[in-house]
Design goal:
92% of the residues lie in helices and 0% in strands. The chain contains 1 helix and no strands. The mean pLDDT is 90.
Protein backbone atom coordinates (compact mmCIF):
# COMPACT_ATOMS: atom_id res chain seq x y z
CA UNK A 1 0.00 0.00 0.00
CA UNK A 2 1.37 3.40 -0.90
CA UNK A 3 1.86 6.21 1.57
CA UNK A 4 -1.08 8.16 0.10
CA UNK A 5 -3.26 5.06 0.37
CA UNK A 6 -2.35 4.65 4.03
CA UNK A 7 -3.07 8.29 4.82
CA UNK A 8 -6.46 8.19 3.10
CA UNK A 9 -7.28 4.94 4.93
CA UNK A 10 -6.44 6.57 8.29
CA UNK A 11 -8.42 9.72 7.47
CA UNK A 12 -11.43 7.62 6.39
CA UNK A 13 -11.43 5.91 9.80
CA UNK A 14 -11.30 9.09 11.91
CA UNK A 15 -15.09 9.57 12.21
CA UNK A 16 -15.40 6.01 13.55
CA UNK A 17 -12.58 6.65 16.02
CA UNK A 18 -14.33 9.81 17.19
CA UNK A 19 -17.63 7.99 17.75
CA UNK A 20 -15.80 5.21 19.59
CA UNK A 21 -14.06 7.72 21.86
CA UNK A 22 -17.30 9.55 22.67
CA UNK A 23 -19.09 6.30 23.48
CA UNK A 24 -16.23 5.22 25.74
CA UNK A 25 -16.44 8.59 27.53
CA UNK A 26 -20.16 8.23 28.22
CA UNK A 27 -19.78 4.60 29.29
CA UNK A 28 -17.12 5.74 31.72
CA UNK A 29 -19.46 8.35 33.16
CA UNK A 30 -22.39 5.93 33.43
CA UNK A 31 -20.45 3.12 35.11
CA UNK A 32 -20.41 4.86 38.52
CA UNK A 33 -24.23 5.13 38.92
CA UNK A 34 -24.64 1.59 37.57
CA UNK A 35 -22.19 0.17 40.12
CA UNK A 36 -23.89 2.17 42.89
CA UNK A 37 -27.33 0.85 41.87
CA UNK A 38 -26.03 -2.72 41.76
CA UNK A 39 -24.49 -2.41 45.22
CA UNK A 40 -27.75 -1.01 46.62
CA UNK A 41 -29.71 -3.85 45.00
CA UNK A 42 -27.26 -6.41 46.33
CA UNK A 43 -27.61 -4.96 49.84
CA UNK A 44 -31.41 -5.07 49.73
CA UNK A 45 -31.36 -8.69 48.49
CA UNK A 46 -28.90 -9.67 51.25
CA UNK A 47 -31.15 -8.05 53.89
CA UNK A 48 -34.16 -9.98 52.59
CA UNK A 49 -32.32 -13.30 53.09
CA UNK A 50 -31.74 -12.74 56.82
Amino acid sequence: MSFQGMVSWIIAGLPFDFIHGVSNFFCGILIVPVITALRLAEGSVAEGMD
